[in-house]
Write a structure and sequence with these properties.
Elements (H helix, E strand, L loop, with lengths): L6 H4 L2 H23 L9 E13 L9 E3 L2 E8 L1 H6 L6 E5 L2 H4 L5 E2 L1 E3 L5 E6 L2 E5 L4
Organism: Limisphaera ngatamarikiensis
Protein name: YbbR-like domain-containing protein
Length: 136
């Protein structure tokens, strides 16, 4: 009565190995999908582009010459492998909208990113930047 039966551990080796292989396959597939895919997978890919230039958008009739600080940002995107691998910094439009009401207070302004169809912007670093106004 004191013996513990290990019968369940030693039986059906083939079924146990199949279940283990299936579990590893499912785990790697889900992990790959969460991570954005690898270069060889069909689930998509995540990529970070550095040095993407910032455009300053001002209203018509407002004075020009605003300077963004920093002048470039880092953008992380996700999408189909073919699109993401062929993407260059100029394919993204990074915009900061100049707001006359916030100009005097020196607040940081949000960065907006427009990407080609099929590309999802995951992250922008820094997410807010400061505009320097031109001298009067």
């Amino acid at each position: 009565m004191g013996r513990i039966s290990l019968h369940w551990l030693t039986e059906n080796w083939g079924l146990k190995l199949f279940a283990l292989a299936l579990a590893v396959l499912i785990w790697t597939t889900v992990h790959d999908m969460i991570q954005g895919g690898s270069a060889g997978a069909g689930f998509g890919r995540t990529r970070t582009l550095t040095g993407v230039p910032v455009w300053v958008l001002v209203r018509a009739g407002e004075r020009q010459g605003f300077r963004a600080d920093p002048e470039t940002v880092e953008v992380t995107v996700r999408g189909p492998r073919e699109l993401v691998e062929s993407l260059v910094a100029d394919d993204l439009r990074v915009v900061v909208r100049e707001d006359p009401e916030l100009r005097a207070s020196g607040q940081l302004l949000p960065v907006e990113v427009e990407a080609p169809e099929g590309i999802v912007v995951v992250r922008v670093q820094p997410p807010r930047i400061r505009l320097w106004s031109p001298p009067d």
